[in-house]
Amino acid sequence: MRRQMMVIALACVVLLAGCQQIPLDKYIPIPSGDDNFVSMEETPDLSYEVPVSTPGILVNQLGYLPESKKVAVFQGDELPDVFHVIDMESKDTVYTGFLEEQGYNQELEEYNSYGDFSGLQTPGNYYIEAPVLGRSYSFSIGEDIYKDTFKEACKQYYYNRCGITLTTEYAGENAHNACHIGKVMLKEDTSITLDVSGGWHQDEKGQKDVMSAAQAMSVMLLSYELYEKAFTDDYGIPESKNGIPDILDEVRYEVEWMLKMQDKQTGEVYAGVSVYGSNNDTSGKTSDIYLEPSSAEAERAFAMALAKFSYLYQNFDSEYATYCLQAADRAWKHAELDSSDESDKINKWKFAAAAELYRASGQRSCHKYIEEYLSSEEDLYEQDEIILLGCITYISTKQKVELTLCDKIMKMLMYQAEKISEDANSSPYLASVNKEQDDSRQLLMNIMYLMVVNHIIANYEYETAIENHIHYLFGINDVAVSYVDGSGENSYGNGEEGIGVMKQFDTDSKLIFILSDVIDKSAG
To answer: Are 97 and 115 contacting, i.e. CB atoms less than 8 angstroms apart?
Structure first.
């Protein structure tokens, strides 16, 4: 692929400055029922249907940063030569541009052209109109256009807190009474009961799964790790203004639930809490709720998330961070004792957990498994956020690492970034999506890979590709819809189209990750 070897070489020079035998300055040693709550969806409802009337001019419905590149996509059987940007309030034409790169798209059976209006940088609210095509949906130009959406994405997890009352002061229309506060029985042995209140609802029933929680937590923590300036202490939750970024306060709330899921003596971790009955039955009766049995993968997911949290939280509360790391270590060891399956030798959850524990505590036994996993390459090139999380942590550690493994990870990351960029360049919407799959989920993963590589090696092509994928997310797509609930004139959550990425338990964490980059840059 073009430039790949040159860029890989440059990447390794930059990266390996961190992949060497530098002792970690500060590492943590391991000592020898309501009926009325609002919940995120775990199973996505992302079957976006084409609106009755789709405009022929596609824009990012949230808007554009003043100095960013601004491009609209025009589609139709007949395309004009000129377009105009209109001020929403005055109705004055503030910019006139010309269409370019006109051509027929065989796959979509339509003509597409592009209109660049990057020269317009004045903050305000606008729309685009053109002969034959009419007008686009509205959009804004401003420095803070993503700020409210980012804050709302972060607060989704607060809205879905279980086990406590959310007041209107903090939750507004999402307020609800405490729910699911009683003890529950183990599904396979009803003589065992456990208090599993707390944590986040993951679907409309209020179910809570350790692996899903660990995945969302780890993506949120990575957002904070890479884009710290984006996260403040003023999101309007009870913990705001306590001197700790609200994103860490929110993750800690989930950590406290995760700790309840572990047997403190053995390290065993129960896999989750299942709620049986109809979707409308959220009474929290113990007879409807069961504790799911433990599993090695749940224990590794637990270890991954808590080790990552402990590493990032030590500057705020070292005692609690140490306690979390001890819990992570117990879960890891129990999983090792519990798993003798041959298929367990190659396991992405084990790899990610090993990477987090190695970075936080320097355990050589964890590094041994990291070497085994990265040497196998069986699924390293599979696009997967758990694999991505483990890889980022390994190349970020200040512990002793194998440079050949860092090089292998960088080659994989560069391969993914180059492939995504090339696919995007061939798309009329300048974004890499697979229409045979869930395009929104694929889109979010693609942006994550691009952002990680761009964070390591700032590259104009990747920066542009990231912006174009975000534009796709917010409206420059074949159905002219913003996939983010409530963000844009025609978005999911504004009508009856379904649930967008912000209302999904796992996709919202990825949305936070993606927007944190934009907010971090605007924060200086």
So the answer is: yes
